[in-house]
Amino acid sequence: MNNSQLDNNPMKLPEAHLQWEGGAPYFCIDGEKHVPLVLFVNTDMDLNTSKEEVGAEIAYARREGVKFVSMIFSFPWPGSDEETRTWLLNHMEAWLDFIIDIYPEAYLFPRIWLGPSVAQIQQTPEWDNECVQHANGMSSPVLSVNSEIWRSGIGGAIREGIAYFESHPRIAPRIIGYHLTYGTAGEWFHYAYREFGSDVSQPNKEAFSRWLISKYGSQENWVQAWNGESMDDSGNPIIYQQPDIAGKPFLSTDADRPMIDFAQFSSEHMADRLIEAAEVVKRVTDGQRLVMAFYGYPFELNDGHSGHLALDRVLAAQEIDILASPISYLDRGLGGSASFMAAVDSVALHHKLWMIEDDTRTHRAEKSEFDESFGTLMPTVELASETHKRNLGAGIVHRTGLWWMDLPSKGWLNDSALWDNIGNMQRFYKQYWETAKPLAPEVAFIIDEKSMHYTGQGLAVNGPLLYMQRLSLYRAGFSYGLYMLEDAVNLRIPQAKMYVFLNAHRLDDRQRSGIERLQQSGGTFVWIYGTDFIDVEEAGSITGFHLQKKYGMTHAGSVSIGAEVGQPWEELAGQSLTIGIPNVPSLLSDQLLPHETFDIPYYTVQPGDGVQAIGHYETDGHSIAIAARDCGTWKSVFVGTGVLDVRLLRSIAAYAEAHIYMDSDDVLHTDGTFLCIYASSAGLKNLRLPDKRIVRDALINETLGEAADCYAFEMYKGEARWLLIE
């Protein structure tokens, strides 16, 4: 269906847009605002098998006024035989009729797989060379994202699928958007790259060649930049089997340009393919449907060649309205942080919506090995409800939407008490959205996706600095936001008291200038592990310290905090803090023996004017690992350990004069007015406010007592509290 066909469609089709009012995002349907809360049911399953459980969940959603239902389908691929095409269309229609019969008022937001079926690929031998070929010699039955067959096919699949939906008299008036999926798990990262290696198929090699010629201006310039190396007999670039395990923990432009280029290409092309698909949807629907995709997981997919490190391109694309991810698979169980995979607060700065996929395994999930392998099975309805509160509470603070997901369509959400809780949460969410302002946290955590292209050992290096770092970030007890470096250097992020640069390994002149402008506004700047040390003569000049590279620091494994340190470091006096990044084993037996390792470099601060030594590497007892310095209009803290101990993080926050609401290592999200507290342990909790205020339970509308600046209350492990500061 083209634009003119939509214009001539006699049915009233919904006009759907994303709308921000103040600090709150809405789905705007035909001019009416709706909060972005959704029920997802897995329609990949057999309808007859699933209809009893799923039907009950849809009825509960209707009862509680959750207006949106999402489901998953595959559009017929161009060239599909009539039997396959008919089965797919009948399958979609049966499920959608079933949903609409139960909930006629629901708006539908289907998730669409953009590829042919495995069976169709296996029955089409001429596509063999178009499929993903892994560097370890294996292949996957999925078309490469750079296959011209795939790129041309998605346009036809989207057009036919949308034409079917939007000409159907029952379905068309209810469709408000399309969630586009491809890659591993439909989440737009390169297919099985961790398990089997990068895509070395001919389409991917040719696309990489074109990208290199575009970057360098000609093949001759490219060959010269690569020193004539890493090309095969056909003149195509050699794609390393696993850039993530290429040996060195950090890469330099002069020595490692082929791997750095491949990492950049891998993300840019994945982002561009996603944007191309979104453009088709917007063009076919005349811009009247929302487009969503999974993308932008630097905290989770921290390999340089994952395909997820071009969020800046995706945020700049007008065709994409919504980005999403599951809750992190790190620490999502009872008492866990259930952290974001992305710099979600940068997404909001660009007026895109972030959606949380809440696939909590409730008490109604099977006690299977699969369920319990994530440590997330909530054994009672009470604990499942508290977990739902934790997850949406984080969304309220960070201005996201959320969908509740019954992953196998086996009734994970088929419980009236769960929906009582969901209804209560939605009512508060709606109310709070009316007055919500943009998030302005006191602490900004800043992540640089481009520096990740320069890590040859992504899991070993970025795992501690990004993935594991969240264990402390969410339990430090202050208000924080998660941002991309580009938004910091372009001065888009709100002014904060403390800026924490988690992985700014490589900066260019433009980025240094942006940070200097940010420093002129004051605040405390915190540099983790090492900053601006790749492709420079002097490491870390932007930090206000003189840094020196040292090796052998991991052998002692810890940093000793001085016994005589004063406030605000006193809590740490005499303590030992663990060094976060281990030495990296080489997996390239042709370069090193299997037992040998690359010694990770660490950075030490040189003593000097105004440098306060907080901690020393225990290897030699005198190399400064943690230091603070007042630079006049701004303050600086260097943390060479890599991993932020939560006690150290609170001490730095106190040095920055950021308010610490709690110090009990429980998960806390707050925007200064609303707090979501999730107990990581049982016991007495002390909530400290900046001044005397009344605190009210947001869900039952009861005050915790007279106005005070400190409140104490008991919580059990896995309990969530939603509080309002008045």
Task: Provide the descriptors you would attach to this structure in a database record.
globular, TIM Barrel, 726 residues, Rossmann fold, 3 domains, 19 helices, alpha/beta, Class_I_gatase-like, 9-stranded mixed beta sheet, single chain
Tell me, what is the CATH class of the largest domain? Alpha Beta
Number of helices: 19
Average predicted local confidence, pLDDT: 92
- The number of E-state strands comes to 32
CATH topology of the largest domain: TIM Barrel
Q: What sort of overall outline do the alpha carbons produce when their principal axes are compared?
A: globular
Helix content: 25-40%
What summary fits the major beta sheet?
9 strands, mixed
CATH architecture of the largest domain: Alpha-Beta Barrel
Number of domains: 3
| Structural class estimated from helices and strands | alpha/beta
Q: Report strand %.
A: 15-25%
Q: What Rg do the Cα atoms give? A: 26 Å
C-alpha termini separation: 53 Å
CATH-assigned homologous superfamily of the largest domain: Glycosidases
Stretches where pLDDT is under 50 for at least 5 consecutive residues are 1-7, 585-596
Order of strands side by side in the largest beta sheet? 15-14-16-17-26-25-24-19-20
InterPro entries: Class_I_gatase-like
Structure overview:
InterPro entries: Class_I_gatase-like. Helices cover 30% and strands 22% of the residues. The strands form eight sheets. It has a nine-stranded mixed β-sheet. It folds into three domains: 31-127 and 144-195 and 267-434, Glycosidases (TIM Barrel), CATH 3.20.20; 443-656, 3-Layer(aba) Sandwich (Rossmann fold), CATH 3.40.50.880; 681-725, no CATH class. Helix 5 packs parallel to helix 9 and helix 7 crosses helix 8. It is of the alpha/beta class and 726 residues long. The model is unreliable at 1-7 and 585-596 (pLDDT under 50). Strand 24 (612-617) and strand 25 (624-630) form a beta hairpin. The termini are far apart. It is globular.
